[in-house]
Amino acid sequence: MCGAPEQTAELPPGTDLSKESVLVGKVTDGSSPVGGAYVRLLDSTGEFTAEVVSSASGDYRFFARPGTWTVRALSRSGNGQAEVTVGGPGLFTTEVEVA
């Protein structure tokens, strides 16, 4: 069971994008959002770092340090992944398509 907070499109109150790096996005099957997917954050060496469950609208969110990350989604609709590079504080958006 994943104990992560509920995922929403809105950032939590008090999030300061001038100081924090936030990875956000959606899990889709190419045309529709995929809710209930296990979304994993892997570091540049492929090591597991964190996991959340996508919301009913496919949203996920991670707070991460600068670097290259892999976002991997595992769902009943299939699996998929995307790479994202975090260069510093700010909002970084990537969609993960599962098939």
UniProtKB/TrEMBL annotation:
It comes from the Bacteria. It comes from Actinomycetospora cinnamomea. SUPFAM superfamilies: Cna protein B-type domain. This is Uncharacterized protein DUF1416. InterPro entries: DUF1416. Pfam families: DUF1416.
